[in-house]
Write a structure and sequence with these properties.
The protein has one domain. It has 8 helices and no strands. α2 packs parallel to α7, α3 runs antiparallel to α7 and α4 runs antiparallel to α5.
Length: about 150
């Protein structure tokens, strides 16, 4: 069975890596629940963050272009490189896995959905969607509610 778009990368990532990425997101949201003055800056950072798809596309394009140039200028055997890269890119598009994926995930690259979860939780903390529970709530409770709402 082919996994859906939102789940294909996490489904092909080691559970401990997924958990580490999720913990880091949770910690950042909890930090900004206690320090709301920094939310706007963090949202700007999230707008600049490259998701795993963009990194894989840039990586594949660079390697394929390099192989094509080497094939045209050095030796035709280099043309195997773009053939392999495009095959891996197709495999990633269909199944959500390709050789660089485990390395990039361990380096902390997130899916667009994972980035959006943090973005939505921060906007909820900022009050973009209205109040989150009673005003007297603890910072961790507000962060938990914001994260839960972002994952719906």
């Amino acid at each position: 069975m082919i996994p859906n778009t939102n789940e294909r990368v996490p489904a092909n990532t080691a559970e401990e890596v997924n958990a580490r990425i999720q913990r880091a997101t949770n910690e950042r949201v909890r930090y900004f629940a206690a320090n709301p003055a920094g939310i706007d800056g963090r949202l700007r950072e999230l707008d600049e963050e490259w998701d795993i798809e963009r990194v894989l596309e840039a990586n594949a394009a660079t390697v394929a272009l390099t192989g094509t140039v080497l094939g045209a200028t050095v030796h035709k055997r280099w043309l195997i490189v773009p053939v392999l890269v495009t095959g891996f890119l197709l495999q990633h598009a269909v199944h959500g896995w390709c050789p660089p994926l485990p390395i990039l995930r361990r380096l902390g690259y997130r899916t667009a959905r994972e980035i959006d979860e943090e973005r939505i939780a921060l906007k909820a903390l900022r009050g973009d969607f209205g109040p989150i529970g009673p005003a007297a709530q603890e910072h961790d409770d507000r962060a938990s509610h914001a994260l839960q709402a972002a994952r719906l």
